[in-house]
Fold each of these.
Amino acid sequence: MKLKYIFPLIIAALAFMVSCQDEDTMTLLDEIQVSSSYVSLPVNGGTASITVTAKDSYTVEKVTTDKDNVEWLTLSSSSGSAGESNITFSAESTLDGRTAEVLITSAGTTQRINIIQGLAQISEATVAEVRNGPDGKTFRATGVVATISNTDYGNWDLEDETGTIYIYGTLDAKGASRNFLSLGIEVGDEVTIEGPKSTYNGSPQLVDVTVININKSLIKVDSVENEMLPIEGGEFIAYLTSKGQGVSVEIPEDAKQWLSISSIQSAGENVVVTFKAAANAGGDRGTTIVLSTTDGSKEYTTETTLNQKGAIIKASIAEFLAAEVGDTQYRLTGVITDISNTTYGNLDIRDFSGETYVYGIQDFQDKDLKVGDIITIVGKRAAYRDDPQVGGAVLESVIPVTPATIAEVLAKPDSSTDYFMVSGEITEIDNPTYGNVYLKDGDDEIYVYGVYPGHGATGDFRKNLLADKGIKVGDKLTVIGTKTTYSGDAQLSNGIYFSHESAE
């Protein structure tokens, strides 16, 4: 990897070291004295100590900021007593130089200790070099804003001729977070940033970057008309400002079958592009259109998106997971197996074919949902870092499931609409193919007429759950089902597998 270094930072650091070396060995405050107000730590990691002489007890604290919480620096003590004592500073190895400040306070007087480890180095690199570089190293990269996924924290994609990298968090001009819009960055802008590289779930990223320069694009979308087209099709209109030489339009290949350019009209810098969408016989669909101009030597781009309503596709979870990421709406039904966020409704649902993560349900806090409930939702096939999920989910219906003991179920009237979640020990397997078993809880026992892999199982999908999961007599089984009666005997019918615990 070819790296270029920002030499002014190195020079500043060297100047800092020289100035510190010129200090007196012992500071001259009356209340508190230190053997050195400058501490240098090895770049490969290590420790260094100073001697503190205080007339009274003292405290020691690191100076932190929103940008740097100085977790890399360890102090041997956060306080000390009157007299002479030692403070040891330690740090692990670092790829880039770093500095910190420590305050020692006694009797209303504060002594500042400057900490430096190595020399600050910021490497200029292409996106490919950043992606292949080590975690923890700070890089400076220049590229075009390809997409913006979060306008609060400033999460977006930076692209150059060598590839694309995700930017997770962008600091504003004052170094504060969650103020991305103040920077005025738009898709198509050429931006120079710097920040540390990390890896999340195998994907490289730059975190909490600082914006060094913004070169605004010569073309931008001012507004659009009919961003959401009806099923029957129609016109989508984009209003542009272009300061370059002409405008070119690129429709993705997979959208050319239903989307075409109707007209392009120009009046000075004002450009109006009209598209025509055909009627939609499938599910929801959408596309991203790239619009370009040039100054004669360099190309500038921007983009706009349009969507078109379609039919909602009923799908099993396995079919949903196999679908492509897009705007098509899917109707899914399954059992809630876990709720990871009770505010937004981030949860997992499972049916007979598989399980998927749901990234929030609209107005979740008003729905009174819980683990075990059977829900039907409508949402898009989405993904986060290549992990599939349901996006933009809306709750259509819910079948509440009540946790109950076997004794409580036995006392309930028969019902095909009231669902219970029951746990018990398997005392007998009557039909291993369909999962007919006897469950016992204390002195109470109930017959379960079928234990199927999940909600929606039919035909052969109902078979062989016990064998597939290695469930046997003695195991604790949790199922969901309705209370019925057959030949005078109470039973749980059409049980939905929830979980089991092996007796071994």
Amino acid sequence: MVLGIDLGTSNTVASTLSRDHVPLLIPDLNNKQSESTPSAILFDGKKALAGQLAQHLFELYPSKKIHRFFKRHFGTYNPVFVDEYSNPWFSETLAAILLKKVQHDASSFMPEPFSKMVLTVPAHYNDTQRKSVIEASKLADMELTAIIDEPIAAALYYSHQVEQIEDEIIMVYDFGGGTFDLTIITKSNNKIFVIAKDGISNIGGKEFDTIVADQIRNNFEMVTKRAFPDDPLLYNRLLLLSEEIKIKLNTKDEGDITKWFSFHKQIFQCHFNKADYGLKASQLIEKTEKAVQSCLRSLGMSFTDINKIILIGGTSNSYLVYDYWQKKINPDKQKLIYHQPLASVAKGAALYASSLDENANRFEAGIQLQTVSTYNIGLKSPETGQVDLVINRNTPLPVTGKIIYKINTGSSDSFAVILCQYWQKDTELQELGTIFVSGFPYSNADLLLEIGIENRANGTIAVKVKNAETGSDIRFEFKKKTLQHEFNFSEQQKLLKSVYINAV
């Protein structure tokens, strides 16, 4: 058996394949009518409650703190929170709790052991974020086989559903709960070649929630003549209520909404005008269009070159998103596909997992994927700040680039350079860490130092240092970039084992 997991910002969806290779969704055992698991963790002493149970208990006891949207913290190395025992909890550890619960549900749903497991990641994730996902799987004792970009997984499932696909250019538009991803692919049958990726890391359904939350907060302040309380628990409750209202406003046949609220012993009313909400939501959708246009320009293409647009992700469920893009397409030459936006990624991940298994059927065995580098990858001098480009963005993976530095061993016995990623030269650099090379033998001769950067098929990066003249390896240290706290795997593993996880 195989398992594909779409680890989402708002909801997590898992899928396996039936004996006849039909993708099946795995329900949250705490709510078998739901084919997704809320990406939510609630702590009650030494108990860690995940999924539907966490969300339900928070609704009953809003004074308890619930943790959501922790996926946005991947790659930051900052703790999401510090508990009452002064233990720092990181996004990787919270994700591991959720993964443990999903694996348990999957094992109960399909009692046979899983031979292959695949996790999905946003297409725009950088090296650090992808490694965070891998760390989360390790903490969850998950025997991870591979990771795959979410839009690619969705494209695989779409291919599986269509008997014959002619050569075409497809845009996978992935608007999720916390991120927006864009992937341009060329496709023929089940051969998928990614030609470009783009995305926005801080835009998704959460920003639609904020539109509603801001109105509730403003109404509170207008009625009470004082600021909304700076209380994390109260704010969590505000966001949960906002999400419920947003879902209704995102439904085409729903009209204006009037609702009473009680916050901080103050009762007040809010009227939500659907037209006003739609105007603000459209401004967010426009930001995604700008990313689309920028990506196409980098390829020397225009929107009219796209044959099909596949809408996936929870936010794409909004009629506002569908109507926005429906107005953009030429119906005679282009097609907008609304193909199971919440389920397609997980189902595609299960199909990909099966393609890696010896029992793959004809479709799965024939799957061919070719993806590209998400970022430009370069080496930056810590002294001058100059960046040397090593691997271009949107280069097919895997790819290895190298650069040679001339070191005068008579004046220096060490060398340091910063590994970084960036979209363009004028955008902010993401420093991944520093490569330190030391212990050069004293000599007046120049040493040709070759630094090789490998961008692997899964999007992670590896470093190798050689003597360019002899080809022999040179020992080096890669010191990862950290912000406030270094992620300590063994300590987080102990912390994870110290709590009881529901249904595990």
Amino acid sequence: MTALLIFLSIVLIGIIVVQVGKVSELAGRIRGEEDQQEDANRIHSSLALVFVVFFLAGCIASAVMYKNSILWYGPHQSASEHGSSLDYIFNVTLVVTGIVFFVTQILLFWFTYRFRAQKGRPSLYLPHDNRLEIIWTALPAVVMTFLVVGGLDAWNEVMADVGEDEPHMEIEATGMQFAWMLRYPGDDGLLGEKNYKLITANNPLGQNWEDVKNHDDIVSTAPGDILKLPVNEMVRVRITARDVLHNFDLPHFRVKMDAIPGLPTYFKFRPTITTEEYRRNLGATDNDGNPLYPEYWEPADPSEPDGPKRWEAFHFELACAELCGNGHYSMRRMIEIVERDEYDEWVAQQKPYYGSIIQGTDEDPFRMSEEQEERKAFMDAVEGALQTSGEEPKALALNNVNFATGSADLTNDSERELGYLIEVLSTYPELMIEVAGHTDNVGETASNLNLSSERAAAVVTYLVDKGVDAGRLRSVGYGDTDPLADNNTADGREQNRRTEFKILAQ
């Protein structure tokens, strides 16, 4: 019953609304509102024509006013080889869509004027027109076909990878919140392997340090660093992300590619103009010395009117074109295009990440142990002495050959360095050496001489026991007669208490 009452109420309200409308229409006719409405239609449609004229004129004026700030016009021609094809496609598309835009806007507002409601003119209803259907279907289809084919050709050119034998250099750009980390190859021209599982505080890219190709790679992480690339050389950019989705964007080079975690992408381009040349184009003047682009002669920093002009401070930029978090704004980097010799000089000044951060630390798989470092230093000293053949024999200290206090008994910790000496004698079977013992001047001279002789003889005995031919060895004790330092100081006396060997023949 309730539902029926609601239904009847709705029907009744509808009848009332219709009747009120009829009464209002009748009253309007009595008052002459039809004539007033016709006048209003004429005024409004005329104003619409005025509006479209000013609107389109404003579009043209703004395009003319700001054309030099648009990448595809004025001084902002493409700075890369492939960019010209993209600019061409963009310009064609802009012309076609611009014509369509202007025509449709003019017709739209003209129709509001031409077919406004008028007294005595009945409304026309055209439900279908085959010719009109053909025109607005076929014409856009033909135009879109040409645009798509041209765009596909440009796309294939841009996205084609470098040829197998095509000379190029490869760099890597890794996006992270909130910075770009760029990796350059070193002298070998190759980027080393990396793995996200290897990422640490000291290894933000996860480089595999066991891959020696990583050892000369240059990694730039500082936002203030100005990166350099050589002009007229093919550059392949390997693009990755460490955390969220980023976008690698070099607008002046028409390079734009998503950086996706776990899915490396790439882009290749060839810079065709140096930064300095691009700046000169922005700051160009006519024959009378007037700037061709006055907007670029304004101060780069409005707070410093006497500072560098906009064209002088210009830099190509690397940006993230994907909103990647609150710090997205900080991912902007500066890139400078230079001649090859300047680029090589810049690269030579950069420190490989491995050598400056990793080498010698616990993360270095090639880090030598204390014993390995000691052995290397010993062998290097011997090699240096062997290169002085024909000169006065060079005495080489056995720094870690020790004896019990006041005796000629070798301590156990002496065996390691004596092992290095045995290795040298085995490597050079013709080598003959003299083992010399020295003391400080504490005590009697005769006693010191005797002790130094016994200690030198003890070293020789140890070597013979380990298989060294006794004919290649001789021992000499010098006592306190050949000090290296002042015996009046504790440090000096410690230096003078030593065991050495000299290469006599090789």
